[in-house]
From TrEMBL:
<dbReference type="InterPro" id="IPR016160">
    <property type="entry name" value="Ald_DH_CS_CYS"/>
</dbReference>
<dbReference type="InterPro" id="IPR017628">
    <property type="entry name" value="OHmuconic_semiald_DH"/>
</dbReference>
<feature type="active site">
    <location>
        <position position="261"/>
    </location>
</feature>
<dbReference type="InterPro" id="IPR029510">
    <property type="entry name" value="Ald_DH_CS_GLU"/>
</dbReference>
<comment type="similarity">
    <text>Belongs to the aldehyde dehydrogenase family.</text>
</comment>
<dbReference type="InterPro" id="IPR016162">
    <property type="entry name" value="Ald_DH_N"/>
</dbReference>
<keyword id="KW-0560">Oxidoreductase</keyword>
<keyword id="KW-0520">NAD</keyword>
<dbReference type="Pfam" id="PF00171">
    <property type="entry name" value="Aldedh"/>
</dbReference>
<dbReference type="GO" id="GO:0016491">
    <property type="term" value="F:oxidoreductase activity"/>
</dbReference>
<dbReference type="InterPro" id="IPR016163">
    <property type="entry name" value="Ald_DH_C"/>
</dbReference>
<dbReference type="InterPro" id="IPR015590">
    <property type="entry name" value="Aldehyde_DH_dom"/>
</dbReference>
<protein>
    <submittedName>
        <fullName>2-hydroxymuconic semialdehyde dehydrogenase</fullName>
        <ecNumber>1.2.1.85</ecNumber>
    </submittedName>
</protein>
<feature type="region of interest" description="Disordered">
    <location>
        <begin position="1"/>
        <end position="38"/>
    </location>
</feature>
<feature type="domain" description="Aldehyde dehydrogenase">
    <location>
        <begin position="20"/>
        <end position="477"/>
    </location>
</feature>
<dbReference type="InterPro" id="IPR016161">
    <property type="entry name" value="Ald_DH/histidinol_DH"/>
</dbReference>
Length: 484
């Protein structure tokens, strides 16, 4: 399978031809070798995709009933499941992530996203009110108000490389469920499963133009052409906060609504009354899953002073034992993470575990690996404690009081997710609502129910995704008032 644009129900030739003549190399993060070429969408390709989406709204897709849309989404879910191994292979090849992660999280949840929104379509109820008609309005009776939801139109979906198919489908499924047409642009680092998804859409009989896919870079490329396009009615974006700012500036010209899932610098609070073994295990998962390249990963750990040394020792020992972890997505990202490792050492951090590049003695030595790293001893204003690193690293600092723990957690420009470890029920309920993040986990991490609101506060995003929240973003309520 070669990455290809999918526009108006047709795959554009991967190389040659006027549309896809420009390509760029795809590099394996596992060994640093080139794996193939990806087409770079021109402005004309993006224009064609937006036009195809617009015409789909005027065609069969625009008039499809909720039942027909739900059946289409189910067919897409089945199509992903029928080619499950191919999807897993493609995701592993693009990202280098452990196969187990791709086969238990990324691909099943991507199929699950289409099923969940097929089901949710039926749970929607509109508002309805009867209103007295005042004399000045010419009536004596009553008026009936009711609300219908209308799709927004052409939706741009721009997604990152860390959970390529999962995060793409997390937006595409509700956007289609709500009746929109989609133009999707996956990350330039991970084009493969998106292309497979286009094949599945094609085979599932999704009407032409309802789903379009363009590949390419962000700034100055396909991402920017798409997000600043006057024919786009809404933008759903997951990625870095700085990219969100750039997209928002382009969207401002056309007052295009945005839904943003952005960066984080997620805290974990470990109280002395917690089950410490569970807190250590949980923090190993929350800091090092997918080598820290999940927006929800913990990068700041605050531990009550009386158990601080024990916790650091236990976390460090577990981090040193980790094996089978994946690489950073690119040489550039590896260099960024390593620059934070160096900065932390320069600023006087104690390196409890890791801090460098592992040596495997095999092909992986040509890849983009860094060691799982645990740091202590940095001041709260040190850059490695304040800035999102997006690698397998956390800094652990002590606190003395609950008040101080909450203040430390909230002392960040970000506010995506937090984890609280305690066995005191009252404390859990007292602390959780005071932490300024969109998601708070108590004695767990990344436990997700697809119906719950997902998103961040502050620089971590705008709006909420998940369940009804996504369907709300991807549709517009229209109130109809009838004088009866
Ligand atoms: P990124 O912002 O560099 O890229 C994301 C997407 O945006 C890519 O498709 C890219 O091509 C595109 N893009 C880049 N610049 C653009 C521009 N100027 N205009 C339009 N499109 C543009 O992010 P990334 O490096 O792929 O992903 C890592 C980041 O994503 C981290 O900051 C992480 O926290 C964040 N993230 C957040 C969530 C969440 O749910 N909050 C989930 C996953 C990742």
């Amino acid at each position: 399978m070669k990455p290809a644009h999918y526009v108006g129900g047709a795959f554009l030739a991967p190389t040659g031809g006027t549309e896809s003549a420009e390509t760029f190399p795809l590099t394996s993060p596992v060994d640093g070798k080139e794996r193939g070429q990806v087409p770079e969408a021109t402005r004309e390709t993006v224009d064609a995709a937006v036009a195809a989406a617009r015409s789909a709204l005027r065609g069969p897709w625009g008039s499809a009933s909720p039942e027909e849309r739900a059946a289409t989404l189910r067919a897409v879910a089945e199509g992903i499941e029928a080619r499950f191994e191919e999807f897993v292979d493609a995701e592993v090849a693009d990202t280098g992530k452990p196969r187990e992660l791709a086969s238990t999280v990324d691909i099943p949840r991507a199929a699950g996203n289409f099923r969940a929104y097929a089901d949710l379509l039926y749970g929607r109820a509109g508002d309805s009110y009867t209103t007295a008609v005042p004399g000045w309005s010419g009536g004596k009776g009553q008026a009936l108000n009711y609300t219908v939801r209308r799709p927004l139109g052409v939706v741009a979906v721009i997604s990152p490389w860390n959970l390529p198919l999962l995060l793409l489908t997390w937006k595409v499924a509700p956007a289609l469920a709500a009746g929109n047409a989609v133009v999707a642009k996956p990350s330039e680092e991970t084009p493969s499963t998106a292309t497979l998804l286009a094949e599945v859409m094609h085979d599932a009989g999704v009407p032409e133009g309802a789903f379009n896919l363009v590949h390419g870079h962000g700034a100055g490329g396909a991402g920017e052409f798409l997000s600043s396009h006057p024919g786009v009615d809404a933008i759903a974006f997951t990625g870095a906060t700085s990219t969100g700012s750039a997209i928002m500036r382009g969207a401002a010209d056309h007052i295009t609504p945005v839904s943003f899932e952005l960066g984080g610098k997620n805290p974990a609070l470990v109280f002395a009354d917690a089950d410490l073994e569970a807190a250590m295990e949980g923090t190993v998962r929350s800091a090092f899953t997918h080598s820290g390249q999940i927006c929800l990963c913990t990068e700041r750990v605050y531990v009550e002073r009386s158990v601080f040394d024990r916790f650091v020792e236990g976390l460090g020992a577990r981090a040193r034992k980790l094996s089978g972890y994946g690489p950073m997505i690119s040489a550039e990202h590896r260099d960024k993470v390593l620059s934070y490792y160096r900065l932390a050492k320069d600023e006087g951090a104690t390196v409890v575990a890791g801090g460098g590049v592992p040596a495997f003695g095999d092909e992986r030595d040509g890849g983009f690996y860094v060691e799982p790293t645990v740091l202590t001893g940095l001041p709260h204003d040190a850059r490695p404690v304040r800035e999102e690193i997006f690698g397998p690293v956390c800094h652990v600092a002590p606190f003395d009081t609950e008040e101080e723990a909450v203040a430390l957690a909230n002392d960040s420009r970000y506010g995506l997710a937090a984890t609280v470890w305690t066995s005191d029920l009252s404390r859990a309920h007292r602390v959780a609502p005071r932490v300024e993040t969109g998601i708070v986990w108590v004695n767990c991490w990344n436990l997700r129910d697809l119906r719950t609101p997902f998103g961040g506060v502050k620089a971590s995003g705008i709006g909420r995704e998940g369940g009804e929240h996504s369907l709300d973003f991807f549709s517009e309520p229209v109130n109809i008032c009838v004088n009866i």
